[in-house]
Amino acid sequence: MEQGYVTKRMMMMILLLPLLISSSSGEAVNSSENVGVCVSKGGRSHQPYELEGKLPESADLEFRDLNMCGMFHEKTCCSASRMLSSSLALQNLATHGEASKDCLFWFELLECSICHPDVGVQSGPLRVCASFCDTVFEACSDAYFNTSDSTNQVIVPCVASNDTICEKASKLETNGTAFCEAVGFTVVQPAGDSVEEPCYGSKRVLETVVPVVESLMKTVRLQDRNYELLILDLQTCLKIAVVVLESTMIYRFFYQLVRDARRLRRRNRIRRRF
């Protein structure tokens, strides 16, 4: 099942990669004006880029070993030390937050927003689309979070502690905007006629990608089912092999007993003759 999840996650990330940053017209914000060197964003728990003042580059091995933000590994301003806290947050969300696979996927896209190459070279703070936050909140509404003492984050994924009380996101926040702001992001609200300013993730992108994602999920579910059947077949073959081996060993054991008994009788006959 884990293999199927990884496959789904990578396929969905590849689809979303060129579409996450978009303008109010729905076109990607990647013009020549935005192509430049890495500019640290500040705010939240965002540490300065190690590539501050340099061009984005391919992720190093240490960053890749974190097993997150894979959709931005080819070109990014991020590094392993920069994303370590985000990696731990995702681990807590999966382990203690009881998050679904969809929640883990969308929350990772949110955490990795700072690693998008276009975001990295833009001046000013990172801004997330309200519609994108709604999608993340919907996916993570049943996941567990707890309040935080951090000045930049009101809530964080549930951690293992006897002194910590974790609650579902839907109990702590009421909507996507409040949720994103609570975990430390700046949210861009739609302007007139529900048109969003340039921001990370857009309503148009989500409406375009979701049907494709649902189709991919069906494909991956079939792959997961085939994988389960393969494992079941292997387990059945293993059981049959064990039974055959045990039967063979038992047969050889009794066969040896019979041979030993015959040899003993022959020796006794020979002794009686003499």
UniProtKB/TrEMBL annotation:
The residues forming a coiled coil are none
Q: Which organism is it from?
A: Brassica napus (Rape)
Under the heading Pfam families, the entry gives: Folate_rec (PF03024)
Which positions carry the signal peptide feature in this UniProt record? 1-26
What protein am I looking at? BnaAnng02820D protein
Recorded superkingdom: Eukaryota
What are the record keywords, sorted? Disulfide bond, Signal
Start and end of every Folate receptor-like domain?
64-183
Entry annotated with the keyword Ligase: no
